[in-house]
Amino acid sequence: MKKLIHVVGAIIENENNEIFCALRSSKMTLPNLWEFPGGKIEKDETPTQALYREIHEEFNCTIQVGQKVEDTTYEYENFIVRLETYKAKLLDGFPVLSEHADAKWIKREYLHTLNFAPADIPAVNKIISEKLNEMM
Question: What CATH architecture is 3-135?
Answer without folding.
Answer: Alpha-Beta Complex (3.90)
